[in-house]
UniProtKB/TrEMBL annotation:
Superkingdom to which the source organism belongs: Eukaryota
Designated gene of the protein: LOC106533981
Record InterPro entries: Globin (IPR000971), Globin-like_sf (IPR009050), Globin/Proto (IPR012292), Globin_lamprey/hagfish (IPR013314)
Protein family per UniProt: Belongs to the globin family.
Annotated organism of origin: Austrofundulus limnaeus
Protein name as catalogued: superoxide dismutase
EC number: 1.15.1.1
Residues covered by the Globin domain: 18-167
Catalysed conversion reaction: 2 superoxide + 2 H(+) = H2O2 + O2; H2O2 + AH2 = A + 2 H2O; Fe(III)-heme b-[protein] + nitric oxide + H2O = Fe(II)-heme b-[protein] + nitrite + 2 H(+); Fe(II)-heme b-[protein] + nitric oxide + O2 = Fe(III)-heme b-[protein] + nitrate
């Protein structure tokens, strides 16, 4: 199910419905258990992303040429990025009741990935799927189908919001080479 760069011209997303109070509580309760193993879970998520979608490594100059999974797992740069990803998710989850804080975090993430790193927004959707997959496998007793549905909705909201920020800053995909 790997997508090749340039295969998707643009990412069209529908605005998800807002999280209910029950969904917010389920997400926060499940995250509290997951976040206890923050670094390991973050590394597992990034490793899964890079194994299943190797093209995604193109955005990481520090470790994009590392092919060996064990070597990737030991990369201090990968661990540092995993920690940042998990920290951003943690800030979102902790502030689900504070729409302004959530919007602020998503704006920072969206602008950085659009303007500084030039990451195609489709990778947020791909990463969301990887996050759901890893959480479901690593924490099946915590991420039940009902909790998974709430996480799906949260991650869809994240993707929608980040894509809106990309649009706001005028991000355009790099032209695919035709050679």
């Amino acid at each position: 199910m790997e997508r090749k760069q340039g295969e998707v011209d643009h990412l069209e997303l529908e605005r998800p419905s807002p999280l209910t109070d029950k969904e917010r509580v389920m997400i926060q309760d499940s995250w509290a258990k997951v976040f206890q193993n923050c670094e390991d879970v973050g590394v597992a998520i990034l490793i899964r992303l890079f194994v299943n979608f190797p093209i995604s490594k193109q955005y990481f100059s520090q470790f994009k040429h590392i092919e060996d999974v064990r070597e990737l797992e030991q990369s201090s740069q990968l661990r540092k990025h995993a920690h940042r990803v998990m920290g951003a998710i943690n800030t979102l989850v902790e502030n689900l009741d504070n729409a302004e804080k959530v919007a602020s975090v998503l704006k920072l993430v969206g602008k950085a990935h659009a303007l500084k790193h030039n990451v195609d927004p489709m990778y947020f959707k791909i990463l969301s799927g990887v996050i759901l997959e890893v959480l479901g496998e690593e924490y099946p007793e915590v991420v039940t189908p009902e909790v998974g549905t709430a996480w799906t909705k949260l991650l869809a909201t994240l993707c929608y919001s980040v894509k809106a920020i990309y649009d706001e800053v005028g991000w355009t995909p790099p032209s695919a080479s035709t050679g």
